[in-house]
Amino acid sequence: MIEIRPATPDEMPELRRMVSAALALDPTSISDLAPEMSLCVFDDDRLAAVHGSWPLTMRFNGKAVPISGVTTVATPPADRGKGHLRRLITQHFKELHEQQERPIAVLYASQAEIYQRFGYAIVSTHHRYRVEPRFLEFVEPLQIPGTVREVDQERDFSLIVDLYRAYREERTGLLHRGQPMWRAGVFSPVKSPEDAKQVVVYEEDGEPLGYCVYTTGNDPERQPPEPGQRLVINDLAALTPRAYQAFWRHLSGFRLARFIDWPQAPDDDPLPHLLQEPRMLRDTARDGILARIVDLPAAIDARGYTSAALLRVDLIDELCPWNAGTWSIDLSPEGTRVKQLAAGEPDLSMTINTFAMLLFGQLTATRAARAGRIGVHDPEALERWDSVLATRYAPFCADNF
Q: In terms of domains, do 116 and 12 share one?
Protein backbone atom coordinates (compact mmCIF):
# COMPACT_ATOMS: atom_id res chain seq x y z
CA MET A 1 0.00 0.00 0.00
CA ILE A 2 1.29 3.47 -0.96
CA GLU A 3 0.96 6.24 1.63
CA ILE A 4 2.05 9.87 1.13
CA ARG A 5 2.59 11.96 4.28
CA PRO A 6 5.24 13.90 6.26
CA ALA A 7 7.71 11.90 8.31
CA THR A 8 7.21 11.69 12.05
CA PRO A 9 9.99 12.78 14.46
CA ASP A 10 10.79 9.11 15.11
CA GLU A 11 11.22 8.51 11.36
CA MET A 12 13.66 11.39 10.79
CA PRO A 13 16.86 9.37 11.50
CA GLU A 14 15.87 6.88 8.78
CA LEU A 15 14.95 9.76 6.45
CA ARG A 16 18.39 11.36 6.92
CA ARG A 17 20.12 8.02 6.44
CA MET A 18 18.23 7.32 3.23
CA VAL A 19 18.71 10.81 1.79
CA SER A 20 22.41 10.88 2.60
CA ALA A 21 22.91 7.48 0.95
CA ALA A 22 20.86 8.34 -2.16
CA LEU A 23 22.43 11.80 -2.67
CA ALA A 24 25.90 11.15 -1.21
CA LEU A 25 25.40 13.86 1.41
CA ASP A 26 26.70 14.28 4.92
CA PRO A 27 23.66 13.49 7.17
CA THR A 28 24.47 16.54 9.31
CA SER A 29 23.87 18.77 6.27
CA ILE A 30 20.15 18.00 6.46
CA SER A 31 19.84 18.01 10.24
CA ASP A 32 17.75 21.21 10.19
CA LEU A 33 15.01 19.68 8.03
CA ALA A 34 11.98 19.41 10.33
CA PRO A 35 9.40 16.60 9.99
CA GLU A 36 6.68 19.05 8.88
CA MET A 37 8.92 20.19 6.00
CA SER A 38 9.08 16.66 4.61
CA LEU A 39 6.77 14.76 2.30
CA CYS A 40 7.40 11.05 1.94
CA VAL A 41 6.23 7.98 0.08
CA PHE A 42 5.82 4.93 2.29
CA ASP A 43 5.47 1.63 0.45
CA ASP A 44 3.99 -0.91 2.89
CA ASP A 45 5.29 1.23 5.77
CA ARG A 46 8.81 1.34 4.24
CA LEU A 47 10.30 4.75 3.39
CA ALA A 48 10.59 4.76 -0.41
CA ALA A 49 11.02 8.43 -1.43
CA VAL A 50 11.55 11.84 0.20
CA HIS A 51 10.72 15.42 -0.81
CA GLY A 52 11.70 18.32 1.44
CA SER A 53 10.86 22.02 1.27
CA TRP A 54 11.96 25.16 3.12
CA PRO A 55 9.70 28.20 3.57
CA LEU A 56 11.82 30.95 1.98
CA THR A 57 11.41 34.49 0.68
CA MET A 58 12.91 35.61 -2.62
CA ARG A 59 13.27 38.94 -4.40
CA PHE A 60 11.19 39.11 -7.57
CA ASN A 61 12.16 42.18 -9.56
CA GLY A 62 12.10 44.37 -6.49
CA LYS A 63 9.33 42.68 -4.48
CA ALA A 64 9.44 39.97 -1.84
CA VAL A 65 7.67 36.71 -2.72
CA PRO A 66 7.25 33.70 -0.39
CA ILE A 67 8.49 30.56 -2.13
CA SER A 68 8.86 26.86 -1.42
CA GLY A 69 12.56 26.03 -1.51
CA VAL A 70 12.58 22.38 -2.55
CA THR A 71 15.43 20.26 -1.20
CA THR A 72 16.53 16.70 -0.30
CA VAL A 73 14.50 15.05 -3.07
CA ALA A 74 15.66 11.44 -3.00
CA THR A 75 14.60 7.97 -4.07
CA PRO A 76 16.78 4.89 -3.37
CA PRO A 77 17.88 3.05 -6.56
CA ALA A 78 15.66 0.05 -5.79
CA ASP A 79 12.55 2.29 -5.68
CA ARG A 80 13.19 4.35 -8.81
CA GLY A 81 10.94 4.03 -11.85
CA LYS A 82 7.82 3.38 -9.74
CA GLY A 83 6.26 6.85 -10.03
CA HIS A 84 7.10 7.91 -6.47
CA LEU A 85 8.68 11.22 -7.50
CA ARG A 86 5.63 12.18 -9.56
CA ARG A 87 3.38 11.36 -6.61
CA LEU A 88 5.41 13.58 -4.29
CA ILE A 89 5.69 16.51 -6.68
CA THR A 90 2.00 16.37 -7.58
CA GLN A 91 1.04 16.29 -3.90
CA HIS A 92 3.40 19.16 -3.11
CA PHE A 93 1.87 21.34 -5.85
CA LYS A 94 -1.64 20.44 -4.67
CA GLU A 95 -0.81 21.45 -1.08
CA LEU A 96 0.80 24.73 -2.17
CA HIS A 97 -2.27 25.54 -4.27
CA GLU A 98 -4.65 24.77 -1.40
CA GLN A 99 -2.63 26.76 1.16
CA GLN A 100 -2.41 29.83 -1.13
CA GLU A 101 0.78 31.04 0.59
CA ARG A 102 3.69 30.21 -1.72
CA PRO A 103 2.87 30.48 -5.43
CA ILE A 104 6.31 29.40 -6.69
CA ALA A 105 8.50 26.37 -5.98
CA VAL A 106 12.26 26.75 -6.53
CA LEU A 107 15.11 24.25 -6.48
CA TYR A 108 18.63 23.40 -7.59
CA ALA A 109 18.56 20.27 -9.73
CA SER A 110 21.07 17.45 -9.76
CA GLN A 111 19.78 16.95 -13.31
CA ALA A 112 17.52 19.53 -14.91
CA GLU A 113 15.77 16.94 -17.10
CA ILE A 114 14.29 15.31 -14.00
CA TYR A 115 12.31 18.43 -13.08
CA GLN A 116 11.59 20.10 -16.41
CA ARG A 117 9.09 17.36 -17.20
CA PHE A 118 7.12 18.47 -14.11
CA GLY A 119 6.84 22.09 -15.25
CA TYR A 120 9.99 23.44 -13.66
CA ALA A 121 12.04 25.77 -15.86
CA ILE A 122 15.65 26.92 -15.74
CA VAL A 123 15.25 30.56 -14.74
CA SER A 124 18.84 31.63 -14.06
CA THR A 125 22.33 31.05 -15.41
CA HIS A 126 25.35 30.82 -13.14
CA HIS A 127 28.94 31.47 -14.21
CA ARG A 128 32.20 30.26 -12.74
CA TYR A 129 35.42 32.26 -13.03
CA ARG A 130 38.90 30.83 -12.51
CA VAL A 131 41.41 33.60 -13.09
CA GLU A 132 45.06 34.16 -12.23
CA PRO A 133 45.50 37.36 -10.19
CA ARG A 134 47.91 38.83 -12.75
CA PHE A 135 45.12 38.99 -15.35
CA LEU A 136 42.89 41.24 -13.23
CA GLU A 137 43.78 44.33 -15.27
CA PHE A 138 41.03 46.71 -16.41
CA VAL A 139 40.61 48.30 -19.85
CA GLU A 140 39.17 51.47 -18.31
CA PRO A 141 40.17 51.53 -14.62
CA LEU A 142 38.10 53.83 -12.45
CA GLN A 143 39.50 56.26 -9.93
CA ILE A 144 38.90 54.65 -6.53
CA PRO A 145 38.54 57.35 -3.84
CA GLY A 146 37.58 54.95 -1.06
CA THR A 147 39.30 52.18 0.85
CA VAL A 148 38.93 48.45 1.32
CA ARG A 149 39.24 47.36 4.95
CA GLU A 150 38.93 44.03 6.71
CA VAL A 151 36.04 43.58 9.14
CA ASP A 152 35.06 40.89 11.62
CA GLN A 153 32.22 38.61 10.56
CA GLU A 154 30.88 38.38 14.11
CA ARG A 155 31.32 41.93 15.33
CA ASP A 156 30.30 43.53 12.01
CA PHE A 157 27.61 41.01 11.08
CA SER A 158 24.80 43.58 11.09
CA LEU A 159 26.79 45.82 8.72
CA ILE A 160 27.20 42.96 6.24
CA VAL A 161 23.50 42.09 6.49
CA ASP A 162 22.50 45.71 5.81
CA LEU A 163 24.74 45.84 2.73
CA TYR A 164 23.30 42.56 1.44
CA ARG A 165 19.75 43.86 1.90
CA ALA A 166 20.57 46.99 -0.09
CA TYR A 167 22.22 44.86 -2.80
CA ARG A 168 19.34 42.39 -3.15
CA GLU A 169 16.59 45.06 -3.11
CA GLU A 170 15.87 45.42 -6.86
CA ARG A 171 17.05 41.99 -7.94
CA THR A 172 15.38 38.74 -8.97
CA GLY A 173 16.29 35.44 -7.30
CA LEU A 174 18.24 36.59 -4.25
CA LEU A 175 16.94 35.17 -0.99
CA HIS A 176 16.08 36.84 2.29
CA ARG A 177 18.79 35.39 4.51
CA GLY A 178 18.12 34.64 8.14
CA GLN A 179 21.05 34.09 10.47
CA PRO A 180 20.95 30.27 10.02
CA MET A 181 21.29 30.70 6.24
CA TRP A 182 24.29 33.01 6.69
CA ARG A 183 25.90 30.51 9.07
CA ALA A 184 25.27 27.53 6.80
CA GLY A 185 26.27 29.33 3.60
CA VAL A 186 28.50 32.39 3.29
CA PHE A 187 29.88 32.04 6.82
CA SER A 188 30.03 28.25 7.00
CA PRO A 189 33.11 26.92 8.83
CA VAL A 190 36.26 26.40 6.77
CA LYS A 191 37.01 22.78 5.89
CA SER A 192 40.70 22.77 6.77
CA PRO A 193 42.62 24.31 9.68
CA GLU A 194 44.94 25.81 7.06
CA ASP A 195 42.07 27.77 5.50
CA ALA A 196 41.01 31.26 6.56
CA LYS A 197 37.82 33.17 5.79
CA GLN A 198 38.05 36.94 5.44
CA VAL A 199 35.52 39.73 5.00
CA VAL A 200 36.36 43.12 3.50
CA VAL A 201 34.18 46.20 3.09
CA TYR A 202 34.62 49.08 0.65
CA GLU A 203 33.93 52.57 2.05
CA GLU A 204 33.91 56.13 0.71
CA ASP A 205 33.99 58.92 3.29
CA GLY A 206 32.93 56.42 5.93
CA GLU A 207 29.96 55.11 3.90
CA PRO A 208 30.00 51.32 3.31
CA LEU A 209 29.26 50.49 -0.35
CA GLY A 210 29.77 46.73 -0.52
CA TYR A 211 31.45 43.67 0.93
CA CYS A 212 33.38 40.65 -0.27
CA VAL A 213 33.79 37.35 1.60
CA TYR A 214 36.53 34.97 0.50
CA THR A 215 38.44 31.92 1.73
CA THR A 216 42.19 31.44 1.32
CA GLY A 217 44.22 28.27 1.73
CA ASN A 218 46.68 25.90 0.11
CA ASP A 219 46.05 24.71 -3.44
CA PRO A 220 46.35 20.89 -3.50
CA GLU A 221 46.51 20.88 -7.32
CA ARG A 222 49.50 23.19 -7.67
CA GLN A 223 52.61 21.96 -9.44
CA PRO A 224 55.92 23.60 -8.43
CA PRO A 225 57.05 26.23 -9.24
CA GLU A 226 53.42 27.47 -9.47
CA PRO A 227 52.03 29.63 -6.63
CA GLY A 228 50.79 27.42 -3.81
CA GLN A 229 47.72 29.25 -2.53
CA ARG A 230 44.10 29.38 -3.64
CA LEU A 231 41.36 31.95 -3.08
CA VAL A 232 37.63 31.26 -3.35
CA ILE A 233 35.05 34.05 -3.37
CA ASN A 234 32.15 33.08 -1.12
CA ASP A 235 30.02 36.19 -1.65
CA LEU A 236 30.38 39.58 -3.33
CA ALA A 237 27.93 42.48 -3.16
CA ALA A 238 28.96 45.85 -4.62
CA LEU A 239 26.54 48.78 -4.63
CA THR A 240 28.54 50.93 -7.09
CA PRO A 241 30.93 50.34 -10.03
CA ARG A 242 33.80 51.81 -7.98
CA ALA A 243 33.14 49.35 -5.16
CA TYR A 244 33.10 46.47 -7.66
CA GLN A 245 36.46 47.42 -9.19
CA ALA A 246 37.92 48.09 -5.74
CA PHE A 247 37.25 44.51 -4.66
CA TRP A 248 38.88 43.03 -7.76
CA ARG A 249 41.91 45.27 -7.34
CA HIS A 250 42.14 44.08 -3.75
CA LEU A 251 41.97 40.45 -4.88
CA SER A 252 44.55 41.00 -7.63
CA GLY A 253 47.10 41.61 -4.89
CA PHE A 254 46.99 37.92 -3.86
CA ARG A 255 49.89 37.01 -6.18
CA LEU A 256 50.68 33.87 -4.19
CA ALA A 257 47.29 32.44 -5.23
CA ARG A 258 47.43 30.14 -8.23
CA PHE A 259 43.82 30.98 -9.11
CA ILE A 260 40.99 33.13 -7.82
CA ASP A 261 37.78 31.10 -8.06
CA TRP A 262 34.28 32.54 -8.05
CA PRO A 263 31.97 29.52 -8.27
CA GLN A 264 28.75 31.54 -8.59
CA ALA A 265 28.74 34.76 -10.60
CA PRO A 266 25.52 36.30 -12.00
CA ASP A 267 24.74 36.16 -15.71
CA ASP A 268 24.99 39.97 -15.96
CA ASP A 269 28.20 40.26 -13.92
CA PRO A 270 30.31 43.02 -15.53
CA LEU A 271 33.80 41.51 -15.13
CA PRO A 272 33.99 39.98 -18.66
CA HIS A 273 33.35 43.48 -20.06
CA LEU A 274 36.00 45.14 -17.91
CA LEU A 275 39.15 43.01 -18.21
CA GLN A 276 41.88 43.44 -20.79
CA GLU A 277 41.98 39.65 -21.25
CA PRO A 278 38.46 38.40 -20.46
CA ARG A 279 39.16 34.94 -21.88
CA MET A 280 41.54 34.41 -18.96
CA LEU A 281 38.50 34.27 -16.67
CA ARG A 282 38.01 30.73 -17.99
CA ASP A 283 34.31 31.55 -17.79
CA THR A 284 31.97 28.55 -17.78
CA ALA A 285 28.17 28.70 -17.58
CA ARG A 286 25.62 26.27 -16.21
CA ASP A 287 21.99 26.16 -15.15
CA GLY A 288 21.20 27.92 -11.89
CA ILE A 289 17.86 27.70 -10.09
CA LEU A 290 14.76 26.05 -11.52
CA ALA A 291 11.34 27.52 -10.75
CA ARG A 292 7.82 26.14 -10.99
CA ILE A 293 4.80 28.44 -11.11
CA VAL A 294 2.19 26.71 -8.97
CA ASP A 295 -0.40 29.50 -8.80
CA LEU A 296 -0.35 31.72 -11.87
CA PRO A 297 -2.28 34.81 -10.66
CA ALA A 298 -0.42 34.98 -7.34
CA ALA A 299 2.97 34.51 -9.02
CA ILE A 300 2.26 37.29 -11.51
CA ASP A 301 1.10 39.62 -8.75
CA ALA A 302 4.16 38.81 -6.63
CA ARG A 303 6.78 40.49 -8.86
CA GLY A 304 7.46 44.11 -9.67
CA TYR A 305 6.88 45.85 -13.03
CA THR A 306 8.29 49.12 -14.33
CA SER A 307 5.85 49.64 -17.22
CA ALA A 308 2.24 48.82 -18.12
CA ALA A 309 0.77 46.44 -20.69
CA LEU A 310 -2.20 44.16 -21.30
CA LEU A 311 -1.20 40.61 -22.24
CA ARG A 312 -3.20 37.60 -23.33
CA VAL A 313 -1.74 34.13 -23.14
CA ASP A 314 -2.90 30.56 -23.62
CA LEU A 315 -1.10 28.31 -21.13
CA ILE A 316 -0.53 24.56 -21.15
CA ASP A 317 -0.09 22.99 -17.71
CA GLU A 318 -0.93 19.31 -17.27
CA LEU A 319 0.27 18.92 -13.69
CA CYS A 320 -1.46 22.05 -12.32
CA PRO A 321 -4.66 22.21 -14.40
CA TRP A 322 -5.87 25.30 -12.54
CA ASN A 323 -3.16 27.23 -14.44
CA ALA A 324 -4.24 25.99 -17.87
CA GLY A 325 -6.35 28.04 -20.28
CA THR A 326 -6.44 31.54 -21.70
CA TRP A 327 -5.61 34.43 -19.39
CA SER A 328 -5.88 38.20 -19.52
CA ILE A 329 -2.96 39.77 -17.65
CA ASP A 330 -3.07 43.51 -16.97
CA LEU A 331 0.27 44.69 -15.58
CA SER A 332 1.46 48.03 -14.23
CA PRO A 333 3.78 49.39 -11.52
CA GLU A 334 0.68 50.04 -9.40
CA GLY A 335 -0.60 46.47 -9.48
CA THR A 336 -1.92 43.57 -11.55
CA ARG A 337 -5.25 42.18 -12.67
CA VAL A 338 -5.29 38.57 -13.81
CA LYS A 339 -8.41 36.77 -14.95
CA GLN A 340 -9.18 33.62 -16.87
CA LEU A 341 -11.07 34.00 -20.15
CA ALA A 342 -13.72 31.68 -21.48
CA ALA A 343 -12.93 32.74 -25.03
CA GLY A 344 -10.74 35.14 -26.96
CA GLU A 345 -7.65 35.13 -29.14
CA PRO A 346 -4.38 35.14 -27.14
CA ASP A 347 -1.23 37.05 -28.10
CA LEU A 348 0.93 34.00 -27.45
CA SER A 349 0.60 30.38 -26.40
CA MET A 350 3.17 28.44 -24.38
CA THR A 351 3.80 25.90 -21.64
CA ILE A 352 4.00 26.90 -17.99
CA ASN A 353 7.77 26.18 -18.18
CA THR A 354 8.33 28.84 -20.82
CA PHE A 355 6.09 31.32 -19.03
CA ALA A 356 8.26 30.97 -15.90
CA MET A 357 11.36 31.82 -17.95
CA LEU A 358 9.65 34.98 -19.23
CA LEU A 359 8.34 35.98 -15.80
CA PHE A 360 11.80 35.65 -14.21
CA GLY A 361 13.51 37.51 -17.06
CA GLN A 362 15.60 34.52 -18.13
CA LEU A 363 14.20 34.77 -21.68
CA THR A 364 12.36 37.47 -23.57
CA ALA A 365 9.26 36.59 -25.56
CA THR A 366 11.11 37.47 -28.76
CA ARG A 367 13.97 35.10 -27.98
CA ALA A 368 11.52 32.38 -26.94
CA ALA A 369 9.68 32.80 -30.26
CA ARG A 370 12.95 32.53 -32.20
CA ALA A 371 13.73 29.36 -30.28
CA GLY A 372 10.33 27.87 -31.12
CA ARG A 373 9.21 27.76 -27.50
CA ILE A 374 6.03 29.82 -27.98
CA GLY A 375 3.22 30.05 -30.49
CA VAL A 376 2.86 33.59 -31.81
CA HIS A 377 -0.69 34.66 -32.71
CA ASP A 378 0.00 38.41 -32.72
CA PRO A 379 3.60 39.25 -33.79
CA GLU A 380 3.16 42.87 -32.71
CA ALA A 381 2.62 41.69 -29.13
CA LEU A 382 6.19 40.43 -28.74
CA GLU A 383 7.65 43.88 -28.16
CA ARG A 384 4.96 44.58 -25.55
CA TRP A 385 5.76 41.34 -23.72
CA ASP A 386 9.50 42.02 -23.86
CA SER A 387 9.11 45.49 -22.39
CA VAL A 388 6.73 44.81 -19.51
CA LEU A 389 8.43 41.57 -18.37
CA ALA A 390 11.97 42.98 -18.42
CA THR A 391 13.74 42.67 -15.06
CA ARG A 392 16.15 45.25 -13.66
CA TYR A 393 18.86 42.61 -13.25
CA ALA A 394 19.41 39.13 -14.64
CA PRO A 395 17.89 36.46 -12.37
CA PHE A 396 20.40 34.99 -9.93
CA CYS A 397 20.40 33.10 -6.63
CA ALA A 398 23.65 33.17 -4.64
CA ASP A 399 22.59 30.58 -2.03
CA ASN A 400 22.32 26.80 -2.13
CA PHE A 401 19.39 25.46 -0.10
A: yes
**11 and 82 co-located in one domain:** yes
For residue 259, which of 130, 111, 346 has the smallest C-alpha distance? 130
Report yes or no: 30 and 17 within 8 Å, Cβ to Cβ: no
Q: Give Cα 56 to chain centroid, integer Å.
A: 12
Answer whether 368's CB lies under 8 Å from 357's CB: yes
Same domain, 310 and 265: no
Q: Are residues 281 and 141 in the same domain?
A: yes
Question: Do 185 and 399 form a contact (C-beta atoms < 8 A)?
Answer: yes
Dump pLDDT digits (tens) for 85-127.
999 999 999 999 999 999 999 999 989 999 999 999 999 999 9
99, 132, 217, 232 from 260: Cα distances, Å:
45, 6, 11, 6
pTM of the model: 0.94
For residues 57 and 114, what is the distance between their CA atoms, to the nearest angstrom? 24
With vertex at residue 347, the alpha carbon angle to CA 342 and CA 351, rounded to the nearest 5 degrees, is: 80
The torsion region of residue 61 among left (phi > 0), alpha (psi -120 to 50) and beta comes to left
Contact partners, residue 315, CB within 8 Å, separation at least 6? 296, 323, 324, 325, 326, 327, 349, 350, 351, 352, 355
What single-letter DSSP state applies at residue 240? S
CATH number, domain with residue 358: 3.30.1050.10
210 domain residue, yes or no: yes
Range of the domain at 323: 300-388
Q: What average pLDDT does the structure give for the chain?
A: 95
Q: What is the dihedral of CA 28, 31, 33, 35, to 10 degrees?
A: 130
Domain count, the chain: 3
The CATH number given to whatever domain includes residue 247 is 3.40.630.30
Out of 96, 123, 150, pick the residue that ends a domain.
123
Closest to 149 measured CA to CA, from 246, 229, 255, 236: 246
How confident is the model at residue 342, as a pLDDT?
A: 86
